[in-house]
Amino acid sequence: MKAIWKGSVIAQSDETLVIEGNHYFPAESARMEFLKDSDTKSVCPWKGTASYYNINVDGETNPDAAWYYPDPKDAASEIQGRIAFWKGVQVIE
Q1: Phi-psi region of 82 (alpha: psi -120 to 50; beta: other; left: phi over 0)
Q2: For the chain, which end, N or C, has fewer CB atoms within 10 Å of the first or last residue's CB respectively?
Q3: How far apart are CA 48 and CA 46, in angstroms?
Q4: What is the pTM of this model?
Q5: CA distance 79 to 82
Q6: Taking the mean position of all CA atoms in its chain, how far away is CA 13?
Q7: The domain spanning residue 77 has which CATH number?
């Protein structure tokens, strides 16, 4: 699977985990040069508190377009160390 925004591959892995229709990529498969920490947080009742990244490609920013759970609840422990994408980021095979 590949996560692509503005023609750049942000992450690529054969080992994504699909939860609630979202592909969670192993963090080591992400090209961190495109991801910048965001101050945004959100809470999921069963996964815990999510943190976000802004995606930056060629001077353009897609705010909060990637998220991860730094300390997921036990029910979602399998997403520890994984990143998911939305907001126009294409996830394709």
Answers
A1: beta
A2: C
A3: 6
A4: 0.96
A5: 5
A6: 12
A7: 2.170.150.40
Dist. CA 10–CA 31, nearest whole Å: 5
Q: How many domains does the chain have?
A: 1
pLDDT confidence of residue 8: 98
How many degrees, rounded to 5, is the angle at CA 11 between CA 49 and CA 41? 20
What are the pLDDT tens digits along the chain (93 aa)? 999 999 999 999 999 999 999 999 999 999 999 999 999 999 999 999 999 999 999 999 999 999 999 999 999 999 999 999 999 999 999
Domain of 59, in residue numbers: 2-92
Tokens coding 81? 């160390």
What's the confidence (pLDDT) of residue 15?
97
The C-alpha torsion from 35 through 47 and 42 to 33, rounded to 10°, is 0
* Closest C-alpha among 42, 25, 22 to residue 34: 25
